[in-house]
Amino acid sequence: MKLQLKCTLTGHEIPFDVQKLQDYIKSPKFLRSWRIYKIMEKYGEYFDDIGDNKFGCKVTRRIITKDPDALERHINGKKFKRDLEKSKVLINY
């Protein structure tokens, strides 16, 4: 029986081998999932997972693809920042 490692981000199973693990963590699929994970770690409370490839923003009420670049553009955008400030003011009342 071979030992397998299972990635909690992607669900990918990797043979228990250091070289294969290093290759996997450099793969585009893992790097994309890792970037999304880091963004959601910081801003996850503002997004709902609404499908295979989409997030719903609770702040701006927009749908954003599960693409790290699209998420960063949305988070750094004027509308998100403005609406986030408005929602923080409403919460403080």
UniProtKB/TrEMBL annotation:
Domain of life: Eukaryota
One Pfam short name: SURF2
Protein name, entry field: 30S ribosomal protein S6
